[in-house]
Amino acid sequence: MRVEFYVLSTASPADRQRAACQLALKAWRAGMPVFVRGADQAQCEELDELLWHFKNDSFVPHDLHQHNPQAPVVLGLDEPPATSQGLLINLNPALSPHLEQFSRVIEIVNQEPQLLALCRENFRLYRQKGYDPQRVEL
Question: Is 0.90 surpassed by the pTM of this model?
Fold first, then answer.
């Protein structure tokens, strides 16, 4: 499994969500199933709304897990993905309980101090689990 930490230069939560939408669009266009894991239900609902209009010239077929777990882009929390070997975009502060079901994981990091600390801990936890996380500057 490939694990990457995409590092944003801002501290804005909105920039982090926009990056998640852009990455979901790119992965879906490449034919990969996508699971975007939110920190809570409110964030999943914000992402659901943002995916409708973050890019005027694009449509990203998506749905909340409880409505359609088979959607090309699924927004959820700790549910297992309906399709394995896809991309997990993790916006949750903790590691997914279903890591082994994904072929790729992207953690999106911004410069907010509390989130930076949590992401550093996640980086260490991935290493402990035997993965080789990579850092990608955005």
Answer: yes
